[in-house]
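From the shared-data thread, chain only:
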Amino acid sequence: LVILALLACGSHALYVDPGSPYADGPLMSSIQTVVIENEEGGAPVRLTVYYPDYTADEVGLNMFIGGFYGLWPGEMYSETLKKAASHGFVVMALNTDDSLIGYIDKILDTLDWAEANLANFISSRVDWNSVQFSCHSAGCHGVLGALRRRPTYAKSTVMTDPVTWDIQNPVDFTIPALFYGTGLTDRKSVV
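Structure, as tokens:
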């Protein structure tokens, strides 16, 4: 997450810690969590937001969609998402609740809602030109669908164990992307 965000931001004045993404970032002690329930403040879905209580600079937004098409709540990934936030991100985990109907629309509606309303719930200042998607498993199907509809919205994406059935049409856009199998360590694997 950290490396791709640095690539995506270029020379933009944005706080990002260049340290190891496997270690806690320098903002870990300031990480806050807020759960925004479905329809609270007009939110289209339930959100779990991890953010540093840091206001000196703007920070990037990471929109995370969990496994099983976003049905797995953000709290299931709290350790990893807090760690990402500690490097200078607002991490917004989307929970699609119990319906896959309009799944990709929910993702895009949530981004639109967050851009207009998230500041009412958190102290961090988001740079909406520095949005990144991340996902796990079939949550990546939604990320791919959202990127197909708005290919210039996100600056990068990180997909963990990605799953999708959207393979008929080639991807016709380019952004920095990282696809990887699960593992939270900075140790080299021995096979």
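The chain is about 20% helix and 25% strand.
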